Amino acid sequence: MTRAETCVVACAEAWRGDGAILASSAGLIPQLGARLAQSTFAPELLVTDGEATLLRDGRAEGWLPYRTVFAIVAAGTRHVMMGASQLDRFGNQNISCVGPWEKPRSQLLCVRGAPGNTVNHPVSYWIPRHSPRVFVENVDMVSGVGHDRNAHEIRLVVTDLAVLDFATPDRSMRLRSTHSGVTVGDVVAATGFTLTIPERVSQTREPTGAELTLIRDHLDPSNAREREIR
After folding, report:
1. Which terminus of the chain is less hemmed in, N or C, by CB atoms within 10 Å?
2. d(Cα 190, Cα 3) in Å, to the nearest integer?
């Protein structure tokens, strides 16, 4: 069992209990997580290839043109796992620029669909490099809104170190679990703001034997998942 495989399972858990909604993802590990969820505990989940095809067991099961996605977003029947260049304690996301927006040091992706996603339906995040450069006190530009700006629901943040959620009175970020071999101190040191730390922090669930077989033999036989995290 590898760290990447634990992250696949942690991403899959983000969609547990969602029902027949559209699962969208940015990045290979979240995509594998959505497909793993669909293949195991969430058979009703709709999984997209990121373009116009709905997938089941790696095969096309339907067509989803881009124009239809806007109706799904507005109806709230989607849960997307996005990435973030910066993320703050309330789940405000930046994928636009680093530095002041008037004269940024780095130009990134613009805001893309982040505003509509975060105000209309559940959103989670996948961060393959947990560091203070990503988890910042204040994002340089708000692309996706957080709970202090009336986000619909920022559900989970899965990183290469831990799983975080917002189960706090003010809906700020909380450490939910650490991956095997990671300490609470490791996560605190890699976070640029003060996290809520519960009295007891559990270990992230590891893949079952059946899940490992699915991941290794069917979902990602080329082992590309190992290249997504350090």
Report:
1. C
2. 17
Cα 171 to Cα 165: distance, rounded to the nearest angstrom:
9
Chain segment 83-102, per-residue pLDDT in tens? 999 999 999 999 999 999 88
* H helices, E strands: number in the chain: 6, 14
Residue listed under structure tokens 């170190």: 161
In degrees, to the nearest 5, what angle opens at C-alpha 227 toward C-alphas 180 and 125?
65
> What backbone torsions phi and psi does residue 88 show, to the nearest 5 degrees?
-110, -175
Q: Rounded CA gap, 149 and 146, in Å?
A: 5
157's tokens: 């943040």
Phi, psi (5° rounding) for residue 228?
Answer: -85, -20
Report the CATH number of the 3-223 domain: 3.40.1080.10
End-to-end CA distance of the chain: 15
Domain spans, the chain: 3-223
